[in-house]
Amino acid sequence: MVIDTLQEMFSYAFLVRAVVVGLLVSLCAALLGVSLVLKRYSMIGDGLSHVGFGALAIATAMHTAPLAVSIPIVVSAAFLLLRISENSKIKGDAAIALISTSSLAVGVLVVSLTTGMNTDVCNYMFGSILVMSKSDVTLSIILAAVVLTMFVVFYNKIFAVTFDENFARATGVKTGLYNMMIAFLTAITIVLGMRMMGALLISSLIIFPALTSMRLCKRFISVTVCSAIVSVACFFTGVIISYVKATPTGASVVIVNIVAFLAFWLVSAVRGSVLKRRTR
Amino acid sequence: MALIACQDASFAYDGVTAVSGLNFAVGAGDYLCVVGENGTGKSTLVKGLLGLLSPCGGGVVTGDGLKRNEIGYLPQQTAVQKDFPAGVYEVVLSGRLASRGVLPFYSRADKAAADENLRRLNIESLRDRCYRELSGGQQQRALLARALCATKKLLLLDEPVAGLDPIATQELYRLIESVNKSGLTVIMVSHDIRGAVTYASRILHLNKAQVFFGPTEEYLNSDVGKSFVGGKRDGN
User: Fold this and answer.
1) Which of the residues A14, A134, B34, B93 has the least number of beta carbons within 10 Å of its own beta carbon?
2) pLDDT at position A234, please?
3) pLDDT above 70 coverage of chain A, percent
4) Å from B224 to nearest chain A CA?
5) How distant is the alpha carbon of residue B168 from its chain centre?
6) Domain boundary among B101, B129, B152
7) Cβ within 8 Å of A, B 115-154
8) Which of A153, A157, A167 sits opposite B75 (nearest CB)?
9) Last residue of a domain, which of B103, B131, B152?
10) Which ranges constitute the DSSP H helices of A62-174?
């Protein structure tokens, strides 16, 4: 029965495209998310998705390709946010809130002045599975290749930069470069995944898998691998649910992520109390 | 020849001079403790010695073939690390990063060095433990092992006993002492003036500028030393 459903699902070309892009984006988001969450940069993902919304609204108003406009805007916003978080003079969380609400306001204004509030806008906010094009597929394959290569080749340096930036810098690791690389790839991941997951929901792909796997895993490597697996599994389950029950894709994926988080948390709580009882 | 020396160096932070008039040299085998009140330039000096901050006047020179990225640095703990999912071995091994340069993976020699330093600090039993589940003193030992992995000559410790209970503090001091006796040079920044004058062979007192630099005995007899230690040494 499940196989029948899958066969039926994958007979639609647009669904195949959406699932490919979605799986690759969730994989990248989970890997980058581990570093972002541990460095207390979770809100950057949320801020960037709102900037992405503003950028998409402008792109629609100008009748240009959405990626061509939103990628440069979101990437520059990522560098700006990173700069702000590193500068102790301005409080990072306040600055992110400032930038994300500003972009949301700009986006809403542009939309209402041009097309008006229509289904397109609703799709930006909460995502639509129908919008993935061939160029999205190509771009997400390139992105996933870059992110995976980076995590394999620079794993030790990413660990050092995430765990202790001061020490890493003192031993000659170019921490600024790695931070910028992670911010850049996060921006691309968000732009790619945003139209499917929705601007308001995409940051969950970054934050949930890392937090979920941290309930149970105690090593950086196991957290990283576990996040990737959890994220991909949750996305796939979410898409199938959304197809079978005709629910919005983005929201379904987030719900599955919540369930996974609660399950992992429950297991860790039970394990903790069992261990406590044993040591008593 | 001095391992590292400041020659009339001054450092600025955000355009404001934080500390100036630094003139001191640290030779091989020395145990120097940098003391002073809050906001007197100690942390700035640490950054300067590590080469993370360029002096705005004078200079910092290294000798004996010491490279700036070969200083074993023990930073102050950040909130991020307290609940970080990492194995102790992973953390200690990351001290070998500087020797790796652009190479991505650790060699067998790196892994041997990590094990060697775990043994040196008596924390082999913690090798496979999770870093966030250790006590404060154990965490500091793991970070000290990481610092030892990064250097053969000079350790730079930034407030190593901050937040530790008295027993863990004494243990860490003894470990640092034994590391120093095995030939490593130690520079320690500390608020714990009693620990400083007990263990260090030389004292550098800062107050936005260099107030005192010399052997510990001389410091204890100087006016600045007497007033800073405050006659509370009888507790030792």
Assistant:
1) A134
2) 96
3) 96
4) 32
5) 17
6) B152
7) 130, 132-133, 146, 150
8) A167
9) B152
10) 66-86, 92-113, 119-126, 134-153, 155-163, 165-170
Do B137 and B209 belong to one domain? no
Pairwise CB contact (< 8 Å): B104 & A154: yes
B68/A156 touch (CB, cutoff 8 Å), yes or no: no
Query: Tokens 């020179």 label which residue?
Result: B61
Asked if residue B135 has pLDDT above 90, the reply is no
Task: Show which of residues 210-229 on chain B sit within 8 Å of chain A, judged by CB atoms.
Answer: none
> Quick check: B104 and A153 CB within 8 A?
yes
| CA neighbor of B97 nearest in space, from A149, A156, A258, A226 | A156
Closest-CA distance of chain B to residue A144, Å = 20
> Average pLDDT, whole number, for chain B?
86
Chain A residues within an 8 Å CB radius of B144: none
Q: Is B129 exposed, middle or buried (0-12, 13-18, 19+ CB in 10 A)?
A: middle
pLDDT for position B76: 87
Provide mean pLDDT across the span A2-7.
84
Enumerate the domain spans of chain A: 2-279
pLDDT tens sequence across A139-186: 899 999 999 999 899 999 999 999 988 888 888 888 889 999 999 999
Segment A172-201 shows an average pLDDT of 89
Measured between beta carbons, the chain B residues lying within 8 angstroms of A40 are 79-80
Residue B15 touches partner A, C-beta closer than 8 Å:
no
- The answer to whether residue B31 sits within a structural domain is yes
| CB pair distance less than 8 Å for A156 and B105 | yes
Residue B148 lies inside a defined structural domain of this protein = yes
- Looking at the structure, tell me whether residues B124 and B141 fall in a common domain: yes
**Contact assignment for A156 to B95 by CB distance below 8 Å:** no
Domain count, chain B: 2
The verdict on a CB contact (< 8 Å) between B84 and A163 is: yes
Q: What is the pLDDT of residue B1?
A: 66
- Which pLDDT score is estimated for A207? 93
What contacts A198, CB < 8 A, 6 or more positions away?
Answer: A123, A124, A125, A126, A127, A248, A250, A251
Distance separating the N- and C-terminal Cα atoms of chain B:
34
Residues B88 and B202 in one domain: no
User: What's residue B232's pLDDT?
Assistant: 46
Is residue B73 one of the residues assigned to a domain?
no
Residues B54 and B159 in one domain: yes
ipTM of the complex: 0.85
Residue B163 has pLDDT above 90, yes or no: no
Whole-angstrom distance, CA of residue A89 vs CA of residue A111: 35
Q: Tell me if chain B has a CB within 8 Å of the CB of A116.
A: no
Cα diameter, chain B: 53
Q: Is A88 within 8 Å of chain B by CB?
A: no
Q: What tens digit of pLDDT does each residue of B6-28 get?
A: 888 888 877 788 888 888 889 88
Per-residue confidence (pLDDT) for residue B233, from 0 to 100: 39
Domain region containing B132: 78-152
CATH of A2-279, one of 1.10.3810.10, 3.30.565.10, 1.10.3470.10, 1.20.1250.20: 1.10.3470.10
